[in-house]
């Protein structure tokens, strides 16, 4: 972290919401070492409760949690503290979910595995500079998968409607959605 110089400002409060307990605790400790005052939550319900009662200046929210969608926590944070900087973190990186997260108020979106330096950079970055072109562009399989994810999100996560619009069998779509994204 020596090469990363950022200012936390006057309020270093940070909420981390993730249902992967080892990851949650590890990231919490790492962020405390970087000067944040960390509060941990393992569910959408716990995250929303903290966001409503003690809205933090910063938040890192996992997208898919056991009891629901992390975007609910982002919405609560935006209502209670519009100036908070929020990073949505997920193991299911898809362009459609990134767009949805940013539309409802997330500052940035990171795919797992992301380390504490990546999270800190995303939370505290003040530049609007666009990243350079990718070293390894998406494969054709990945582009197809991203398109399916986008249509799925646009259909409000309705498998039958998505399958109809894509012209594929519902079971085929379910198998595709159950898999991790191709490289």
Task: Tag the structure with descriptive keywords.
transcription; sequence-specific DNA binding; Arc Repressor Mutant, subunit A; 183 residues; five-stranded parallel sheet; two-stranded antiparallel ribbon; transcription regulation; Photosynthetic apparatus regulatory protein RegA; Rossmann fold; alpha/beta; globular
Brief overview, please?
The protein has 183 residues and is an alpha/beta fold. Helix content is 45%, strand content 16%.
CATH architecture of the largest domain: 3-Layer(aba) Sandwich
The whole-angstrom Rg is 17 Å
Shape: globular
Q: Give the class from helix and strand content and strand pairing.
A: alpha/beta
- Counting DSSP H or I runs of 4 or more residues, the number of helices is 8
Helical fraction: 40-55%
Largest sheet: 5 strands, parallel
Modified residues (4-aspartylphosphate): 62
Protein name: Photosynthetic apparatus regulatory protein RegA
Keywords: Activator, DNA-binding, Phosphoprotein, Transcription, Transcription regulation, Two-component regulatory system
Pfam family, one: HTH_8
Structure notes:
The chain is 45% helix and 16% strand. With 183 residues, the chain is α/β, with parallel strands linked by helices. The chain has 2 domains: 13-124, Response regulator (Rossmann fold), CATH 3.40.50.2300; 140-178, Arc Repressor Mutant, subunit A (Orthogonal Bundle). The strands form 2 sheets. Strands 2-1-3-6-7 form a 5-stranded parallel sheet, sandwiched between helices. A two-stranded antiparallel sheet has the order 4-5. It is globular, with a radius of gyration of 17 Å. It starts with 12 loop residues before the first strand and ends in a 5-residue tail after the last helix.
